[in-house]
Fold this protein.
Amino acid sequence: MSDIPKADELFKSIDYNPPTTGWMETPVDFSPGHWCYPAKPEKIEYMDSKLPGLWGPAREWLPSNDDWKLPPNWKEIVVNGFRERLKKFRTLQVYMDICVRCGACADKCHYFIGSGDPKNMPVLRAELMRSVYRGEFTLAGKILGNLTGSRVMEEDVLKEWFIYFYQCTQCRRCSLYCPYGIDTAEMTMMARELMHLVGLNTNWIMEPVANCNITGNHLGIQPHAFKDIVDFMVDDIEEVTGRKVKAPLNEHGHEILFITPSGDVFADPGIYTFMGYLLLFDYLDLDYTLSTYASEGGNFGSFTNNEVMKKLNAKMYAEAERLGCKWILGGECGHMWRVVHQYMDTMNGENQWSGMTTPKSPITGTVFETSAATKMLHITEFTSDLIKHNKLKLDPSRNDHLRVTFHDSCNPARGMGLLEEPRYVLKHVCNNYFEMPEGTTREQTFCCAGGAGLNTDEIMEIRLRGGLPRGNALRYVQEKHGVNLMACICAIDRATLIPLADYWAPGVGISGVHELVANALVLEEGEVRTMDMRQEPLPGFEDEDDDWTPPNMEDA
Amino acid sequence: MNALYSLLFVFLLVLIPLFGVDAAHMRTFFGVCVPTTAFIIFLIGFVYKVIIWGRSAVPFRIPTTGGQFRSYDPELFKQNKLDCPQTGAQTFFRMALEVLAFRSLFRNTRVSLYQGKDYPVVAYKSSKWLWVFAITFHYSFFIIALRHLRLFLEPVPFFVNGLDFVDGLLQIGAPVMYLTNVGLVLGVLLLLGRRLVLPRINYISYVSDYFPLFLILAIALSGIYMRYYAKVDVIAIKELTMGLVTFSYTVPETIAAPFFVHVFLVSCLMVYFPFSKLMHMPGVFLSPTRNLPNDTRAKHHVNPWNDPNIKAHAYADYEKQFGVPMAEAGLPLDNPENGKAPAEEEA
């Protein structure tokens, strides 16, 4: 990170004027920092043993070298795979044909806004594929060639794909503005599928994929270690609240299976959100269990290919069946919810066991018909329903030291439509709530620039550039309203927004929604808390011997 | 450069019928054969492409949600029915707005960067120009196409006469100036202008982006020229056009060259259409991020190529692999055997 320019300098370096050379002639920078590390061969070998034929050769290779060690027939594989996918995905087929290059999408991409690189305009990102489509599959493209922006599949083209389809977070902001709804996320998914076929991959995606399959979570936490961590969090909760909460793991015969992204088990500040869930469920005496086998809500398959997405997702229903759970409650996560909302039932619906029922809150009796098919409920739906029915005693003043804004994660916003529920919860658990400026929230929200498998440090400058729109909106409310915390409902956000905020809006912390719920939750009449879930003293309870103040309480 | 090429192409296309009709006396060829053939190519190409699209599977329901979905409590959390449709009817309205009002384009914003007082600022401003240009262009084109029905239908339907009347309401000039003629020329020029002037849009424009604009401009101008300046023999033209649709072909001698230029350019457009980006017209109806309801959590959708052989990594295998440490950690096991340490370790 040392060679990353300062925020002001980086900002000044952004130039939206395209280069003088045409985009097909402009060379691509393959120097380190422009790509994610390729997957370790053993990860590919493992996945090839589970889902054969999708991965190309397992090998050591580096994008900065000239030789990417592609299989000799790579071109045939890619072109045939392309043709096959045109038949399997109407999105791909139609979106290859109908773009008029009106440019409405051009300045909607966070990577373009932060870099000015024309190939980060969604229209050109898609043209990287479309040019090949025209050159390989259409009559006009074959005859008229360059006049129609056509070219054939070449090694340079494939290499360019690798750089730019791993500079798209599948956030779909462009698709909102496109007059035809052209969805670059679809193109990125297809391009990545094709690249996997010839062994172009990134370790930050493939290692989690392999881990999710083996251990159930992307970090590779083994079941006993998972239990240790949960026990540790139970102790921490007791430290803060004096309450020893239950944390059932892998237990048969509970009504609800709770699945959340494993990032929240592992890293600060996600763990506080996880502790929030545990505290809330214990308070409700909820009949639920966690699972170590299905301990990942996120689905790294959705950054990889359809086959892996289905395979990893299948664990959720398999575990519900094994443990005899009637429905699944899902934690705060972005792409997990895109998969659950738009893919899960289609992929694995027939594998639901007969005992599954439409989620019904055992506390309020609300039947959630909106999830009648998947049998899976979002935690903010569950909690907002509790609040609506007055089932939670809340003291929002415990969050008075926080001035909170909310970051809509791309997937719940544009792949689901979950906008109001988390806001409703937040407004009931904290008194100081502020929206970021219009055009940067709700369905127009900006990505954290680390989604879809790009949350890796070797491309930090790319991430920080892509983080400019979000970071700048955050800076705005920081200056205007003194915001010092950005809440979100996504585990990747909770990891990626921290460097983003440190860079573009230093002094703003990141949290999940249920961390703030846990802070505000009054466990019993007259309960007094002296610290928040992070074990930082609440105002009025600072240890007098200790003049250290938590970062988010420092005066600017 | 790309724009220049396109302009040149269109000039060449104008010259072909001019020479063909006057010098080569191929009146029947340009009056009957070319438009008929072009229309057939248009029809077949158009239908073929739409069939290709229709045959491509829709494995998942992936609407782009542009607002609050239908919540468990629609009173408390109001659904945005138009941008996040949950039913067929709502989806229909979303599509209608998309097709008829270019709703997504209406959202357009423009980003700008500037140095604020204390920190740099990224600002977003509503930008409706593209929408205005596009609406002007498309509606003018559409109404002009409808007005041309009077050449192919006898008696002329009432709505075509109605359109004529409304379109010429300003009563300027003789023959009366149509608003849509102005709209079409203006619309094309604006869309062209933006491609030429805006650096980013210029950067992404191919010959195939300029060509249809110049072609349509040439069609519009040749039409206007016929009506207002050449004052062509409309009765004779109708005789020809009625002949085309009733298959009793005739090319009256009184029809002048500008007509053949106009018809030839329209024929070029028809032939070009199915092989080009102009297919966005039918394509917008088939866009899966727009034409599907956001309901897969509530309703089962079938993926025709779903592979039932892809199964989860089995729990039994997982327990076999991690049974020993699981047992030590006190996690329940389905098969207690898995919790026993392998024999050699016990020894």
Summary: Residues 213 and 389 of chain A are 39 Å apart (CA to CA). The domain at 396-520 of chain A is CATH 3.40.50 (Rossmann fold). Residues 223-241 of chain A form the longest helix (19 residues).
